[in-house]
Amino acid sequence: MDPSKNPALTQALIELEQHVARDGWDQNVRLFALVDTAQLIAAEPRLAAALAPETVEFGGQIGPQRSYTSIEQEGVPADRPLDELLAGIAWPETVDGAALVIERLMLPPSVQDQLPADEQDADAWVAAHPERQEVRIAVGVLRDGARDCALRLRVKDKDDEVLSGADLVPNLVRALADTLND
User: Fold this and answer.
1) Domain annotation covers residue 1
2) Predicted model pTM
3) Domain count, the chain
4) Segments of the chain with pLDDT less than 70
5) Containing H/E element for 142?
6) Does 12 reside within a domain?
7) Domain for residue 97, yes or no?
8) Which domain holds residue 164?
9) What is the DSSP pairing of strand 61-62 with strand 65-66?
10) Is 154 helix (H, G, I), strand (E, B) or coil?
């Protein structure tokens, strides 16, 4: 099995993206700590009441699979550039991973080489491009190197249309993984 893949992380990201999707589109960036559910229950037994019964029954795991609980970080500044925001984050050792949900405009690869060099011009050009797609991206990384992404197109706004793959947004994955480094 690929060490960068982790089925529990994939499941946590899909659930997280669906959770965020219930609040609709046009949201600000949302940041989450990922913690091992079994360790969370052991440290905070009263939280077990808030978890799905099958999770508690299996000791914080879904069947034989480990599970992660997402803890949203409140007060994430909406006006800071994402690279600056991520560069200022450091997680304590009790956090097993991190996840980020963000909305962006994407273009097909066939038009990428036409992007203007100036960032402001590029933003305006992308926003006006007829082939642009609005997407919600959920990215998750673990300290052990596992990583994954879930991506929903606004034009295909259904839970069963969410795409998943570790390499969908590699630069964002790398930036989020850097928040876990000491």
Assistant:
1) no
2) 0.83
3) 1
4) 1-4, 48-65, 182
5) strand 133-142
6) yes
7) yes
8) 7-178
9) antiparallel
10) helix
